[in-house]
């Protein structure tokens, strides 16, 4: 492909060489350069791609995309841009033939609810006969192919590659999680989303390697409403006015607010043997009763979001209700049947905010006891341990403190930190470092009417110890425990 075709939607300066240069591949990892490649110099958190110019030109790179003045062999074309990450998104889209133009694209951002909502949308649209690709925190799904995820939102090149594969696999649409980091680093540039969804925002991901403060976090997330045709926003969020400020899309809203275009009324908690759920009356742009086998008010928000999107795909009421009944997300309030007497669930809640939200929700069901089993990751903030210990001590009737991913730390040292937070409360606890033994304890000591939560691991199927990942899926552990293994 000619270089000029890859650059057609970008502002750039050709510092050296010719834009008529033929390009045989687009690369941003110096190890993957082959003869005739275009190499994009990305400034990463750890490594600066500009430093690899001698190496990549020796390997045969014929085009460099740079942000600064560089020295390169005379037969190499040098293209200078303001931001190489931004440029990579447009170059990648062109390289793969602008695949987003052949799909209906749905991007979902927000502090909470992204993952569950993407699977709900996928479930509803597939029930209606669409073929749906997915990109998210857990995995990317392209037809029958499942690719485990390393980032919530992959690099722009990978996003475009996945879109291309989805088109090849016959997908009609794609639903993807869009992280604040993904927006900040321009991973979703190079195309315009047909639908952009903003679920909610709370302080999170604020720190030296993420966002400097809440204002920056909010402004990055709000970028989605400048990169989509239709924006669908939670009307109840206290930051609503700031979220929609400067939006360039057609705006729709959902929530409990009377001002919401699609709203929930008469919400009721429902429950049975081994499951919890919620029901409500949908009003506004659509009008029918909804029932979901996932507990909590946030399940209403997640389902409202999914319905708001699927309304644009002309999905029938019957298909929406059928799909919401079967929509399940691995590790997100995932109920696992172990007894008719009590309810057990697996959830990814791995910080204080998520754990507090989950336990507060489950408290509304007035369990006989609320039992919370969790650990904390090693090589991570000790503050998180104190906070999670305090939250569980305050909200759970019994806390079972165990291991998560200890990484390079001693499991007992992490447990001792959690107990510092527990000590600020009057909560009862037991400590069982071995996670399988801890889960066995929770199951064997379950009492009628209990709700038992296994928190922190969620969809993960491994435990990381001393730099190595060992297989450990809580569903398998539960099956083994029930089988007496």
UniProtKB/TrEMBL annotation:
<keyword id="KW-0131">Cell cycle</keyword>
<feature type="modified residue" description="N6-carboxylysine">
    <location>
        <position position="221"/>
    </location>
</feature>
<feature type="binding site">
    <location>
        <begin position="404"/>
        <end position="407"/>
    </location>
    <ligand>
        <name>meso-2,6-diaminopimelate</name>
    </ligand>
</feature>
<keyword id="KW-0132">Cell division</keyword>
<keyword id="KW-0573">Peptidoglycan synthesis</keyword>
<comment type="similarity">
    <text>Belongs to the MurCDEF family. MurE subfamily.</text>
</comment>
<feature type="short sequence motif" description="Meso-diaminopimelate recognition motif">
    <location>
        <begin position="404"/>
        <end position="407"/>
    </location>
</feature>
<keyword id="KW-0547">Nucleotide-binding</keyword>
<dbReference type="Pfam" id="PF01225">
    <property type="entry name" value="Mur_ligase"/>
</dbReference>
<dbReference type="InterPro" id="IPR000713">
    <property type="entry name" value="Mur_ligase_N"/>
</dbReference>
<dbReference type="InterPro" id="IPR036565">
    <property type="entry name" value="Mur-like_cat_sf"/>
</dbReference>
<feature type="binding site">
    <location>
        <position position="456"/>
    </location>
    <ligand>
        <name>meso-2,6-diaminopimelate</name>
    </ligand>
</feature>
<dbReference type="InterPro" id="IPR005761">
    <property type="entry name" value="UDP-N-AcMur-Glu-dNH2Pim_ligase"/>
</dbReference>
<feature type="binding site">
    <location>
        <position position="460"/>
    </location>
    <ligand>
        <name>meso-2,6-diaminopimelate</name>
    </ligand>
</feature>
<keyword id="KW-0460">Magnesium</keyword>
<keyword id="KW-0963">Cytoplasm</keyword>
<feature type="binding site">
    <location>
        <begin position="110"/>
        <end position="116"/>
    </location>
    <ligand>
        <name>ATP</name>
    </ligand>
</feature>
<keyword id="KW-0961">Cell wall biogenesis/degradation</keyword>
<feature type="binding site">
    <location>
        <position position="151"/>
    </location>
    <ligand>
        <name>UDP-N-acetyl-alpha-D-muramoyl-L-alanyl-D-glutamate</name>
    </ligand>
</feature>
<feature type="binding site">
    <location>
        <begin position="152"/>
        <end position="153"/>
    </location>
    <ligand>
        <name>UDP-N-acetyl-alpha-D-muramoyl-L-alanyl-D-glutamate</name>
    </ligand>
</feature>
<feature type="binding site">
    <location>
        <position position="179"/>
    </location>
    <ligand>
        <name>UDP-N-acetyl-alpha-D-muramoyl-L-alanyl-D-glutamate</name>
    </ligand>
</feature>
<dbReference type="Pfam" id="PF08245">
    <property type="entry name" value="Mur_ligase_M"/>
</dbReference>
<dbReference type="InterPro" id="IPR004101">
    <property type="entry name" value="Mur_ligase_C"/>
</dbReference>
<dbReference type="InterPro" id="IPR013221">
    <property type="entry name" value="Mur_ligase_cen"/>
</dbReference>
<feature type="domain" description="Mur ligase C-terminal">
    <location>
        <begin position="331"/>
        <end position="458"/>
    </location>
</feature>
<feature type="binding site">
    <location>
        <position position="380"/>
    </location>
    <ligand>
        <name>meso-2,6-diaminopimelate</name>
    </ligand>
</feature>
<keyword id="KW-0067">ATP-binding</keyword>
<comment type="pathway">
    <text>Cell wall biogenesis; peptidoglycan biosynthesis.</text>
</comment>
<feature type="domain" description="Mur ligase central">
    <location>
        <begin position="108"/>
        <end position="309"/>
    </location>
</feature>
<dbReference type="InterPro" id="IPR018109">
    <property type="entry name" value="Folylpolyglutamate_synth_CS"/>
</dbReference>
<comment type="function">
    <text>Catalyzes the addition of meso-diaminopimelic acid to the nucleotide precursor UDP-N-acetylmuramoyl-L-alanyl-D-glutamate (UMAG) in the biosynthesis of bacterial cell-wall peptidoglycan.</text>
</comment>
<feature type="binding site">
    <location>
        <position position="30"/>
    </location>
    <ligand>
        <name>UDP-N-acetyl-alpha-D-muramoyl-L-alanyl-D-glutamate</name>
    </ligand>
</feature>
<feature type="domain" description="Mur ligase N-terminal catalytic">
    <location>
        <begin position="22"/>
        <end position="91"/>
    </location>
</feature>
<keyword id="KW-0436">Ligase</keyword>
<keyword id="KW-0133">Cell shape</keyword>
<dbReference type="Pfam" id="PF02875">
    <property type="entry name" value="Mur_ligase_C"/>
</dbReference>
<protein>
    <recommendedName>
        <fullName>UDP-N-acetylmuramoyl-L-alanyl-D-glutamate--2,6-diaminopimelate ligase</fullName>
        <ecNumber>6.3.2.13</ecNumber>
    </recommendedName>
</protein>
<dbReference type="GO" id="GO:0008765">
    <property type="term" value="F:UDP-N-acetylmuramoylalanyl-D-glutamate-2,6-diaminopimelate ligase activity"/>
</dbReference>
<dbReference type="InterPro" id="IPR035911">
    <property type="entry name" value="MurE/MurF_N"/>
</dbReference>
<feature type="binding site">
    <location>
        <position position="187"/>
    </location>
    <ligand>
        <name>UDP-N-acetyl-alpha-D-muramoyl-L-alanyl-D-glutamate</name>
    </ligand>
</feature>
<dbReference type="InterPro" id="IPR036615">
    <property type="entry name" value="Mur_ligase_C_dom_sf"/>
</dbReference>
């Amino acid at each position: 492909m000619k270089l000029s075709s890859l650059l057609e939607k970008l502002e750039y300066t050709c510092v050296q060489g010719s834009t008529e240069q033929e390009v045989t591949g687009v690369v941003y990892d110096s190890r993957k350069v082959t003869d005739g490649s275009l190499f994009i110099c990305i400034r990463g958190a750890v490594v600066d791609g500009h430093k690899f110019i001698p190496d990549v030109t020796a390997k045969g790179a014929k085009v460099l995309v740079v942000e600064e003045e560089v020295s390169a062999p005379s037969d190499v074309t040098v293209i200078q841009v303001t931001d190489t990450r931004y440029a990579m998104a447009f170059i990648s889209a062109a390289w793969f033939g602008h695949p987003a133009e052949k799909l209906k694209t749905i991007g979902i951002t927000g502090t909470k609810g992204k993952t569950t909502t993407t699977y709900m949308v996928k479930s509803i649209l597939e029930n209606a006969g669409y073929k749906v690709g997915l990109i998210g925190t857990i995995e990317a799904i392209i037809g029958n192919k499942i690719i485990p995820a390393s980032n919530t939102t992959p690099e722009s090149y990978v996003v475009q590659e996945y879109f291309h594969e989805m088109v090849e696999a016959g997908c009609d649409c794609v639903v993807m999680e869009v992280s604040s980091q993904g927006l900040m680093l321009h991973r979703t540039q190079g195309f315009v989303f047909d639908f952009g969804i903003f679920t909610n925002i709370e302080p999170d991901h604020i720190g030296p390697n993420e966002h400097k403060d809440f204002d920056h976090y909010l402004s990055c997330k709000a970028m989605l409403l400048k990169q989509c045709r239709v924006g669908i926003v939670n009307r109840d969020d206290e930051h609503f006015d700031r979220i929609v400020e400067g939006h360039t899309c057609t705006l729709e809203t959902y929530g409990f607010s009377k001002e919401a275009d699609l709203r929930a009324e008469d919400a009721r908690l429902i429950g049975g043997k081994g499951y919890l759920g919620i029901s409500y009356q949908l009003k506004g742009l659509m009008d029918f009763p909804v029932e979901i086998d996932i507990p909590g008010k946030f399940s209403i928000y997640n389902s409202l979001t999914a319905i708001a999107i699927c309304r644009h795909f002309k999905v029938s009421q019957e298909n929406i209700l059928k799909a919401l009944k079967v929509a399940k997300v691995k590790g997100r309030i995932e109920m696992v049947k172990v007894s008719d007497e009590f309810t057990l669930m697996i959830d990814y809640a791995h910080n204080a905010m998520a754990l507090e939200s989950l336990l507060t929700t489950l408290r509304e069901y007035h369990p006989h006891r609320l039992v919370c089993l969790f650990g904390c990751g090693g090589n991570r903030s000790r503050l998180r341990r104190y906070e999670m210990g305090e939250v569980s001590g305050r909200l759970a009737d019994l806390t079972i403190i165990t291991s998560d991913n200890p990484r390079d730390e001693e499991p007992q040292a992490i447990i001792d930190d959690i107990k510092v937070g527990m000590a600020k409360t009057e909560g009862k606890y037991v400590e069982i470092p071995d996670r399988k033994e801890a889960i066995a304890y929770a199951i064997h000591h379950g009492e009628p009417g209990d709700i038992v939560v296994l928190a922190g691991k969620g969809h993960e199927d491994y435990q990381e110890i001393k730099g190595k990942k060992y297989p450990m899926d809580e569903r398998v552990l539960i099956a083994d425990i029930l089988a007496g293994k």
